[in-house]
Specification:
With about 300 residues, this protein is α+β, with helices and mostly antiparallel strands. It has two domains: about 5-125, Aminotransferase class 4, branched-chain amino acid transferase, N-terminal domain (D-amino Acid Aminotransferase, Chain A, domain 1); about 130-295, D-amino Acid Aminotransferase, Chain A, domain 2 (Alpha-Beta Barrel), CATH 3.20.10.10. It has eight helices and 17 strands. Strands 8, 9, 10, 11, 12, 13, 14, 15 and 16 form a nine-stranded mixed beta sheet that branches. Strands 1, 2, 3, 4, 5, 6, 7 and 17 form an eight-stranded antiparallel beta sheet that branches. The two termini are about 25 Å apart. The structure holds 4'-deoxy-4'-aminopyridoxal-5'-phosphate (PMP). 4'-deoxy-4'-aminopyridoxal-5'-phosphate binds near residues 167, 198, 219 and 255. The site of 4'-deoxy-4'-aminopyridoxal-5'-phosphate has 15 residues, from helix 6 and strand 14.
């Protein structure tokens, strides 16, 4: 994972080692930050472009609104910042990590009405999030002993830093037991999502994904739903249980980092036909997703999905 040498910090491009962050930063103590994960891809017609950059920066603003504060840069400022941060580093393809957080101010749980807000956009190179084997042959999942918090405990529509402790616990538990990723149930026992991905299953040619109620509204999820509708592949958003998941013909995860990751096993139960590798719908979505992010395949409404880096 090569890191960029430069980042965008509070409106300026800087060298990473010149960034100073105080130990009195409120977010360091209480998790009062919000972040995004975005990818930039090499394009078919040359150069690079950032995938759905405005949608990610809009979600960053919404996460901060959910947290109860305002980012001191507009969505357009952040879009320009993202492009500048890519340009300041010399990667062919990269991952962008915008983060806005309450900075050095009052250190009580209540940071006061106008705490300082810092905003950074970091860049690094990130390969297959669930490993090359997971991406190509299918990853192995475990339903976590950790449960997604009730919708009135943590705000799942916000990509809020402190909330990720739940994901860290689940992911580390799954990995320590030899699995690639954790799936979390909601407090009523229905499937929600992975520690950093949304969840799709296929049963008898119908694609099913968990409803927005208790999950992060993934931008990759939205892209996949648009794609499935365009291809007239039937899709429903509905709750399902772990036994339905175990019996699915196909399972895949979606996320900016994980892209489209096929799943070959859940709770030690193989998924799909014995000996089969990636199922047909998963394989099609995975292949076409790569074409969409590289400007090789357009969908209705996708005209502004690729922001050129220039
Ligand atoms: N759920 C969670 C909990 C996540 O952290 C992510 C990654 N941002 C996703 C789903 C997928 O979201 P996206 O497709 O926007 O990356």
């Amino acid at each position: 994972m090569a890191r960029g040498t430069h980042l965008w910090f509070n409106g300026k491009i800087m060298k990473v080692e010149e960034t100073k962050i105080s130990p009195f930063t409120h977010a360091l103590h209480y998790g009062t930050g919000a972040f995004e994960g975005i990818r930039a891809y090499k394009q078919k017609r040359g150069g690079g472009a950032v995938f759905r950059l405005p949608d990610h920066m809009k979600r960053l603003h919404e996460s901060f609104k959910i947290l109860g504060f305002k980012i001191p840069f507009s969505v357009d400022d952040l879009i320009r910042g993202g492009v500048e941060a890519c340009k300041a580093n010399d990667f062919e393809e990269c991952y962008l990590r915008p983060i806005a957080f309450l900075g050095d101010g009052p250190l009580g749980v209540d940071p006061g009405d106008n705490p300082p807000v810092d905003v950074a956009i970091l860049i690094w190179e990130w390969g297959n999030y669930l490993g090359d084997q997971g991406a190509n042959e299918g990853a192995r999942l475990k339903i976590s002993s950790f449960v997604r918090p009730h919708v009135n405990s943590l705000m799942t529509k916000g990509k809020i830093s402190g909330q990720y402790v739940n994901s860290v616990l689940a992911k580390r538990e799954a990995k320590s037991m030899g699995f690639d990723e954790a799936l979390l149930l909601d407090p009523e026992g229905y499937l929600t999502e992975g520690s950093g991905e949304n969840l799709f299953i296929v049963i008898d040619g119908i694609v099913k994904t968990t409803p927005l109620t208790s999950i992060l509204a993934g931008i990759t999820r939205r892209t996949v739903l648009n794609y499935l509708q365009t291809k007239k592949i039937p899709v429903v958003e509905a709750r399902f249980t772990r036994d339905e998941l175990w019996c699915a013909d196909e399972i895949f995860l979606t996320g900016t980092a994980a892209e489209i990751t096929p799943i070959k096993e859940v709770d030690l139960r193989p998924i799909g036909k014995p000996g089969a590798t990636v199922g047909p719908i998963t394989a099609q979505v995975k292949k076409d997703y790569q074409a969409i992010v590289r400007g090789e395949l357009e969908l209705p409404g996708s005209a502004n999905w690729l922001t050129p880096i220039r």
